[in-house]
Amino acid sequence: MADLALVPRQPSAAGWDTLRDEPGPDTVRCLGLYAKLSAGVTVVTALDATGCPTGMTVSALTSLSARPPLVLACLRGGSRTLTALCDQGAFAVSLLTARQKTVAERFADASVPPARRFDGIPVRHVLGLPVLADALAWSVCLVEDIRLYGDHHAVVGRVMAVDVNGGRPLLWHDRAFHTLTGAREV
Ligand SMILES: Cc1cc2nc3c(=O)[nH]c(=O)nc-3n(C[C@H](O)[C@H](O)[C@H](O)COP(=O)(O)O)c2cc1C
Fold first, then answer.
1. Is any atom of ligand 1 closer than 6 Å to the C-beta of 114?
2. pLDDT tens digits, residue range 88-100?
3. To which CATH superfamily is domain 40-172 assigned?
4. Residue ID of nearest Cα to ligand 1 atom 7
5. 140 with 126: CB under 8 angstroms?
Protein backbone atom coordinates (compact mmCIF):
# COMPACT_ATOMS: atom_id res chain seq x y z
CA MET A 1 0.00 0.00 0.00
CA ALA A 2 2.80 2.38 0.88
CA ASP A 3 4.29 1.91 -2.58
CA LEU A 4 0.90 2.42 -4.25
CA ALA A 5 0.49 5.74 -2.44
CA LEU A 6 3.66 6.92 -4.18
CA VAL A 7 2.40 6.06 -7.66
CA PRO A 8 2.13 9.31 -9.59
CA ARG A 9 -1.43 9.72 -10.91
CA GLN A 10 -0.37 12.21 -13.56
CA PRO A 11 0.27 10.70 -17.01
CA SER A 12 3.94 10.67 -17.90
CA ALA A 13 5.33 12.82 -20.67
CA ALA A 14 4.72 9.83 -22.96
CA GLY A 15 1.02 9.86 -21.93
CA TRP A 16 1.33 6.66 -19.81
CA ASP A 17 -0.89 6.67 -16.70
CA THR A 18 0.67 4.07 -14.40
CA LEU A 19 -2.61 2.94 -12.81
CA ARG A 20 -5.00 3.18 -15.76
CA ASP A 21 -2.73 1.87 -18.48
CA GLU A 22 -1.31 -1.18 -16.71
CA PRO A 23 -2.78 -4.37 -18.21
CA GLY A 24 -4.02 -5.44 -14.75
CA PRO A 25 -4.44 -8.96 -13.39
CA ASP A 26 -6.11 -11.55 -15.61
CA THR A 27 -9.63 -12.87 -15.07
CA VAL A 28 -8.49 -15.98 -13.20
CA ARG A 29 -6.59 -13.90 -10.65
CA CYS A 30 -9.57 -11.58 -10.20
CA LEU A 31 -11.90 -14.54 -9.69
CA GLY A 32 -9.45 -15.75 -7.04
CA LEU A 33 -9.83 -12.42 -5.28
CA TYR A 34 -13.65 -12.55 -5.51
CA ALA A 35 -13.58 -16.08 -4.03
CA LYS A 36 -11.99 -14.65 -0.89
CA LEU A 37 -14.94 -12.35 -0.32
CA SER A 38 -17.43 -13.68 2.25
CA ALA A 39 -21.09 -13.07 1.57
CA GLY A 40 -24.53 -14.08 2.70
CA VAL A 41 -26.42 -16.29 0.26
CA THR A 42 -29.74 -15.03 -1.10
CA VAL A 43 -32.37 -16.10 -3.59
CA VAL A 44 -33.57 -13.32 -5.89
CA THR A 45 -37.08 -14.01 -7.18
CA ALA A 46 -39.33 -12.40 -9.77
CA LEU A 47 -42.30 -13.17 -11.99
CA ASP A 48 -41.67 -13.95 -15.63
CA ALA A 49 -43.72 -12.60 -18.54
CA THR A 50 -46.34 -15.33 -18.04
CA GLY A 51 -46.65 -14.62 -14.31
CA CYS A 52 -44.70 -17.74 -13.27
CA PRO A 53 -42.21 -17.45 -10.42
CA THR A 54 -38.53 -17.57 -11.27
CA GLY A 55 -35.48 -17.21 -9.08
CA MET A 56 -31.75 -17.66 -8.74
CA THR A 57 -29.09 -17.89 -6.05
CA VAL A 58 -27.19 -14.64 -5.58
CA SER A 59 -24.30 -13.84 -3.26
CA ALA A 60 -23.52 -10.46 -4.83
CA LEU A 61 -26.14 -8.57 -2.86
CA THR A 62 -25.42 -5.65 -0.60
CA SER A 63 -27.09 -2.79 1.19
CA LEU A 64 -26.71 0.46 -0.73
CA SER A 65 -28.67 3.17 1.10
CA ALA A 66 -30.82 3.54 4.21
CA ARG A 67 -32.70 6.73 3.16
CA PRO A 68 -34.17 5.82 0.77
CA PRO A 69 -33.79 2.09 1.44
CA LEU A 70 -31.89 0.64 -1.52
CA VAL A 71 -30.18 -2.70 -2.13
CA LEU A 72 -27.79 -3.62 -4.92
CA ALA A 73 -27.65 -7.02 -6.64
CA CYS A 74 -25.23 -8.05 -9.41
CA LEU A 75 -26.74 -10.49 -11.92
CA ARG A 76 -24.97 -11.98 -14.91
CA GLY A 77 -26.20 -11.09 -18.37
CA GLY A 78 -28.44 -13.81 -19.81
CA SER A 79 -29.91 -14.79 -16.44
CA ARG A 80 -33.60 -15.64 -16.74
CA THR A 81 -34.25 -13.99 -13.40
CA LEU A 82 -32.65 -10.79 -14.67
CA THR A 83 -34.90 -10.84 -17.74
CA ALA A 84 -37.97 -11.34 -15.55
CA LEU A 85 -37.18 -8.55 -13.08
CA CYS A 86 -36.37 -6.17 -15.95
CA ASP A 87 -39.72 -6.97 -17.60
CA GLN A 88 -41.77 -6.67 -14.42
CA GLY A 89 -39.83 -3.86 -12.72
CA ALA A 90 -39.86 -5.66 -9.38
CA PHE A 91 -38.13 -8.46 -7.51
CA ALA A 92 -37.80 -10.02 -4.07
CA VAL A 93 -34.75 -11.07 -2.08
CA SER A 94 -34.76 -13.91 0.46
CA LEU A 95 -31.70 -14.23 2.71
CA LEU A 96 -31.04 -17.93 3.31
CA THR A 97 -30.38 -19.65 6.63
CA ALA A 98 -27.72 -22.30 7.18
CA ARG A 99 -30.50 -24.90 6.87
CA GLN A 100 -31.18 -23.84 3.27
CA LYS A 101 -28.00 -25.01 1.51
CA THR A 102 -29.99 -27.34 -0.75
CA VAL A 103 -32.25 -24.41 -1.66
CA ALA A 104 -29.19 -22.40 -2.69
CA GLU A 105 -27.91 -25.31 -4.77
CA ARG A 106 -31.23 -25.81 -6.51
CA PHE A 107 -31.70 -22.12 -7.36
CA ALA A 108 -28.18 -22.10 -8.85
CA ASP A 109 -28.73 -25.24 -10.95
CA ALA A 110 -29.21 -24.16 -14.57
CA SER A 111 -30.57 -27.64 -15.39
CA VAL A 112 -33.57 -27.13 -13.09
CA PRO A 113 -36.29 -25.08 -14.86
CA PRO A 114 -36.97 -21.87 -12.90
CA ALA A 115 -40.56 -22.79 -11.94
CA ARG A 116 -39.42 -26.24 -10.64
CA ARG A 117 -36.90 -24.63 -8.31
CA PHE A 118 -39.77 -23.73 -5.95
CA ASP A 119 -41.03 -27.34 -5.66
CA GLY A 120 -41.62 -28.27 -2.01
CA ILE A 121 -40.36 -24.91 -0.72
CA PRO A 122 -42.79 -22.83 1.36
CA VAL A 123 -43.46 -19.61 -0.52
CA ARG A 124 -45.39 -16.50 0.49
CA HIS A 125 -46.62 -13.89 -1.93
CA VAL A 126 -45.96 -10.34 -0.79
CA LEU A 127 -47.08 -7.44 -3.00
CA GLY A 128 -47.49 -10.08 -5.70
CA LEU A 129 -43.92 -11.40 -5.51
CA PRO A 130 -42.78 -14.81 -4.24
CA VAL A 131 -40.58 -14.81 -1.12
CA LEU A 132 -39.20 -17.91 0.62
CA ALA A 133 -41.22 -18.24 3.83
CA ASP A 134 -38.42 -19.89 5.86
CA ALA A 135 -35.80 -17.28 4.99
CA LEU A 136 -33.67 -15.44 7.53
CA ALA A 137 -35.11 -12.21 6.15
CA TRP A 138 -36.73 -11.02 2.95
CA SER A 139 -37.52 -7.85 1.08
CA VAL A 140 -39.66 -6.91 -1.89
CA CYS A 141 -38.19 -4.24 -4.16
CA LEU A 142 -39.10 -2.04 -7.08
CA VAL A 143 -36.36 -1.81 -9.70
CA GLU A 144 -34.82 1.65 -9.31
CA ASP A 145 -31.98 1.30 -11.81
CA ILE A 146 -30.20 -1.30 -13.93
CA ARG A 147 -26.78 -0.78 -15.49
CA LEU A 148 -24.57 -3.14 -17.42
CA TYR A 149 -21.01 -3.40 -16.12
CA GLY A 150 -18.93 -5.95 -18.03
CA ASP A 151 -20.63 -9.33 -17.88
CA HIS A 152 -23.01 -8.45 -15.03
CA HIS A 153 -25.85 -6.00 -14.46
CA ALA A 154 -25.95 -3.86 -11.32
CA VAL A 155 -29.60 -3.91 -10.22
CA VAL A 156 -30.64 -1.30 -7.67
CA GLY A 157 -33.89 -2.08 -5.84
CA ARG A 158 -35.97 0.23 -3.67
CA VAL A 159 -37.18 -1.76 -0.66
CA MET A 160 -40.99 -1.66 -0.43
CA ALA A 161 -41.53 -4.40 2.18
CA VAL A 162 -39.23 -6.23 4.55
CA ASP A 163 -39.35 -8.90 7.23
CA VAL A 164 -36.59 -10.21 9.50
CA ASN A 165 -36.69 -13.62 11.19
CA GLY A 166 -34.20 -15.52 13.37
CA GLY A 167 -31.54 -18.06 12.48
CA ARG A 168 -27.95 -18.38 11.32
CA PRO A 169 -27.06 -17.11 7.86
CA LEU A 170 -25.83 -19.29 5.03
CA LEU A 171 -22.47 -17.91 3.84
CA TRP A 172 -20.48 -18.29 0.62
CA HIS A 173 -16.68 -18.13 0.84
CA ASP A 174 -13.88 -19.80 -1.13
CA ARG A 175 -16.45 -21.37 -3.49
CA ALA A 176 -18.11 -23.29 -0.63
CA PHE A 177 -21.01 -22.87 1.78
CA HIS A 178 -20.32 -22.04 5.43
CA THR A 179 -22.17 -20.95 8.51
CA LEU A 180 -21.31 -19.08 11.67
CA THR A 181 -21.26 -22.10 14.00
CA GLY A 182 -19.01 -21.26 16.93
CA ALA A 183 -18.32 -17.81 15.55
CA ARG A 184 -17.46 -15.11 18.08
CA GLU A 185 -17.07 -11.39 17.77
CA VAL A 186 -13.42 -10.45 17.51
C1 LIG B 1 -23.45 -19.55 -3.87
C2 LIG B 1 -23.79 -19.01 -5.24
C3 LIG B 1 -23.84 -17.65 -5.44
C4 LIG B 1 -24.16 -17.13 -6.70
N5 LIG B 1 -24.18 -15.76 -6.85
C6 LIG B 1 -24.50 -15.24 -8.05
C7 LIG B 1 -24.54 -13.83 -8.21
O8 LIG B 1 -24.30 -13.07 -7.27
N9 LIG B 1 -24.89 -13.35 -9.43
C10 LIG B 1 -25.15 -14.17 -10.51
O11 LIG B 1 -25.44 -13.67 -11.59
N12 LIG B 1 -25.11 -15.52 -10.37
C13 LIG B 1 -24.81 -16.07 -9.17
N14 LIG B 1 -24.78 -17.42 -9.02
C15 LIG B 1 -25.11 -18.28 -10.19
C16 LIG B 1 -26.64 -18.37 -10.46
O17 LIG B 1 -27.33 -18.76 -9.30
C18 LIG B 1 -26.92 -19.39 -11.60
O19 LIG B 1 -26.25 -18.94 -12.76
C20 LIG B 1 -28.40 -19.60 -11.88
O21 LIG B 1 -28.54 -20.83 -12.60
C22 LIG B 1 -29.04 -18.51 -12.72
O23 LIG B 1 -30.40 -18.86 -12.94
P24 LIG B 1 -31.31 -18.17 -14.06
O25 LIG B 1 -30.50 -18.12 -15.33
O26 LIG B 1 -32.49 -19.07 -14.16
O27 LIG B 1 -31.68 -16.80 -13.59
C28 LIG B 1 -24.44 -17.99 -7.79
C29 LIG B 1 -24.38 -19.39 -7.58
C30 LIG B 1 -24.05 -19.88 -6.33
C31 LIG B 1 -24.01 -21.39 -6.11
1. yes
2. 999 999 999 999 9
3. Electron Transport, Fmn-binding Protein; Chain A (2.30.110.10)
4. 58
5. yes
